[in-house]
């Protein structure tokens, strides 16, 4: 199993388009930091915490801001791309039939594919956070952090909260990857699976933006993704994060079971 | 390559030794929509034999092979592979089977060797320590060593086909299922594949090899099954099939009437006399030399004399029909 999993990670990491996607993800915090540096004197905007206003005070906030910004589009897009390809891509190139006759085992293939996607999600999200923190600290310097509550916490405590936030976002993306994996078992066209997953994500964002549908919001996968911001209050507010993790887990379990049910009996004719 | 010596637990022990079949299907059927792609076939691939699985385009060979390997779920019917009931013992069975299904398929951006490494990594039972040497041996066996590190996407059709065969040979096998293994190969490549298959068979490995060209595989097959429009229309050892073909006598003579009279008494049936020719079907116990002796003894002038059986190719065509169009 370990060999197969390593092979899967190598396959994902070796794809040119995945590498390009990762480069885009890494470029956003860099551009963000440069943009803030160039416009430092501009007045601050209102709205929910985006962390952008805090960057000048401490470069670590570039990481928080980049995570918040990329949560809506670039990260889900990257996850949709990789997860849509998981089964449909192998079916499309025909390599799936050879994997299954090795025999790799259908459940095993699915498990390794999902493991690979979780690996991909963590690499993607950590790339954003690490590049953001490093570039931010290089440009804006660092020190103690001002929380959203206005108090100060030490740099160590701040980095710890950044780490927890990054893991939280990565878990949210892993849950989306389970959805993408399920969609990927439905078709032999990887592009179709990617687009479908992206459309589902976008649809959830749209629903999440309609206040009249407030009753639905707690059930939307995307609704809690930004809840890590509450960890930057003093004291840290874990409520949203726990609720988010339970929704993530719910989506992941349902989607993986659906993927398994679909894939286990599927005729492989490509 | 020796047959698999993998120590299977007792329940996995090859029952094929009992039934004598490496592949046995009972009423295997696959219906796609309204089409019976494979229609109740009873395939019998004898252990240690080379089974030529023939049929024109669209006759259901690949669909059958996909069902055998558990890729497609049969609509009805069941089958055993090497004595393992399928799909219950699919994993145990497939570990002993190397396969090539409907042409090669690999990741285009990986090299041939990296592709084999990935397949080997996916195999729960393969030993990581021997992977490199097994991969090299498989590449060597199909003559692909010089191109091993080239991207698969840059391979020629024949190189791709060879890589697929190498993949089937990555581990010791008891059965090889090869769907049109010579597709896209040059004449040398075709010969080499034939040679390779014979070699593997002489090691005791059972082989199921599909083709739509009888001529391409008839030298290496011990058994033949012929598919036509989803049905298995003929099956048996190649010698039995040869024997079922009736020999036909062709005689050239200026006196066809007298020749016919002599032949009729031997007996030779279905005599047809033409202008200076006579043809007919000699009874089975008559050797050609008996016919010549009888004719000469009766003073029939013989100018030309042949007794021949239709080729397997003719038989195959008569079984599958001459039509060029594929079945819809
Ligand atoms: N996934 C599918 N959906 C619907 N029909 C299919 C599918 N796969 C195969 N068929 C049909 O089943 C029939 C048998 O196809 P199959 O691929 O088994 O033929 P074959 O004997 O392998 O032909 P060839 O020599 O061309 O490879 C064909 O008529 C084909 O159209
Ligand atoms: Mg075919």
UniProtKB/TrEMBL annotation, chain A:
It holds the Pfam family ABC2_membrane_2. The keyword Transmembrane helix applies. Signal peptide: none annotated. The keyword Membrane applies. GO terms for molecular function: ABC-type transporter activity. Keywords: Membrane, Transmembrane, Transmembrane helix. This is ABC transporter permease.
From TrEMBL, chain B:
Residues 23-254 form the ABC transporter domain. Belongs to the ABC transporter superfamily. It comes from the Bacteria. This is ATP-binding cassette domain-containing protein. The keyword Mitochondrion does not apply. GO terms for molecular function: ATP binding; ATP hydrolysis activity. It comes from Flexivirga caeni. Keywords: ATP-binding, Nucleotide-binding, Transport. The keyword Nucleotide-binding applies. Pfam families: ABC_tran. SMART domains: AAA.
């Amino acid at each position: 199993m370990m060999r197969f999993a390593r092979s899967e990670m190598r396959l994902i990491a070796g794809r040119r388009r995945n590498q390009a996607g990762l480069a885009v993800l890494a470029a956003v915090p860099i551009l963000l930091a440069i943009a803030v540096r160039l416009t430092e004197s501009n007045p601050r905007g209102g709205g929910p915490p985006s962390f952008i206003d805090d960057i000048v005070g401490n470069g670590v906030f570039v990481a928080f801001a980049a995570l918040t910004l990329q949560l809506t589009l670039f990260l889900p897009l990257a996850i949709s791309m990789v997860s849509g390809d998981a089964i449909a891509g192998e079916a499309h190139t025909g390599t799936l039939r050879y994997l299954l006759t090795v025999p790799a085992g259908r459940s095993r293939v699915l498990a390794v594919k999902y493991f690979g996607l979780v690996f991909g999600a963590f690499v993607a999200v950590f790339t954003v956070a690490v590049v953001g923190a490093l570039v931010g600290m290089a440009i804006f310097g660092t020190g103690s952090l001002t929380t959203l509550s206005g108090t100060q916490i030490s740099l160590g405590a701040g980095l710890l909260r950044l780490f927890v936030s990054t893991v939280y976002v990565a878990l949210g993306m892993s849950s989306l990857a389970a959805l993408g994996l399920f969609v990927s078992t439905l078709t032999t066209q990887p592009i179709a699976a990617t687009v479908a997953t992206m459309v589902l994500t976008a649809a959830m964002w749209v629903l999440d933006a309609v206040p009249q549908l407030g009753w639905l919001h707690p059930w939307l996968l995307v609704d809690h993704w930004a809840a890590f911001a509450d960890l930057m209050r003093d004291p840290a507010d874990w409520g949203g994060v726990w609720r988010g993790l339970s929704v993530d887990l719910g989506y992941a379990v349902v989607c993986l079971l659906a993927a398994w049910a679909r894939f286990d009996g599927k005729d492989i004719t490509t | 390559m020796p047959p698999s010596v993998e120590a299977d637990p007792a329940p996995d022990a090859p029952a094929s030794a009992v039934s004598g079949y490496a592949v046995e299907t009972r009423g295997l059927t696959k219906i796609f929509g309204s089409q019976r792609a494979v229609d109740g076939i009873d395939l019998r691939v004898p252990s240690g034999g080379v089974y030529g699985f023939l049929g024109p385009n669209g006759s259901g060979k690949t669909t059958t092979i996909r069902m055998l390997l558990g890729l497609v779920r049969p609509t009805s019917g069941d089958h055993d592979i090497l004595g393992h009931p399928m799909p219950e013992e699919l994993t145990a069975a497939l570990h002993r089977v190397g396969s090539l299904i409907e042409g090669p398929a690999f990741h285009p951006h990986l090299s041939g060797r990296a592709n084999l490494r990935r397949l080997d990594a996916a195999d729960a039972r393969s030993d990581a320590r021997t992977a490199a040497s097994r991969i090299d041996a498989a590449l060597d066996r199909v003559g692909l060593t010089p191109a091993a590190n080239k991207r698969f996407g840059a391979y020629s059709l024949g190189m791709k086909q060879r890589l697929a065969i190498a993949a089937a040979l990555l581990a010791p096998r008891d059965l090889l299922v090869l769907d049109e293994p010579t597709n896209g190969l040059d004449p040398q490549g075709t010969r080499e594949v034939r040679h390779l298959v014979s070699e593997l068979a002489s090691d005791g490995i059972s082989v199921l090899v599909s083709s739509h060209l009888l001529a391409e595989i008839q030298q290496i097959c011990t058994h033949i099954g012929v598919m036509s429009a989803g049905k298995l229309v003929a099956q048996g050892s190649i010698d039995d099939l040869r024997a079922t073909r009736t020999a036909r006598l062709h005689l050239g003579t200026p006196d066809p009437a007298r020749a016919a009279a002599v032949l009729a008494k031997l007996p030779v049936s279905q005599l047809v006399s033409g202008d200076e020719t006579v043809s007919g079907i000699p009874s089975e116990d008559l050797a050609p030399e008996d016919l010549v002796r009888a004719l000469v003894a009766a003073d029939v002038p013989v100018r030309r004399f042949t007794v021949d059986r239709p080729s397997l190719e003719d038989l195959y065509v008569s079984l599958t029909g001459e039509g060029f169009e594929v079945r819809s």
